[in-house]
Design a protein that fits this description.
single chain; elongated
Length: 55
């Protein structure tokens, strides 16, 4: 039982510590995004003007 309570305490501590992050700053308008991926990044099934490379 003590082991279980220790694991619960550890889990809750890790879970709550993840909530204290500062929000990310916005990327500048001239910023560059490098994305490695597959058809999801390419925008498969989406018009060319709405796909990720066009955005």
């Amino acid at each position: 039982m003590r082991y279980f309570l220790s694991l619960c305490f550890l889990f809750l501590t890790l879970l709550l510590s993840a909530c204290g992050e500062k929000p990310l700053s916005l990327i500048p308008s001239q910023g560059v995004i490098l994305a490695f991926g597959d058809s999801l990044n390419f925008g498969k099934g989406v018009n060319k003007n709405n796909s990720y490379p066009a955005v």
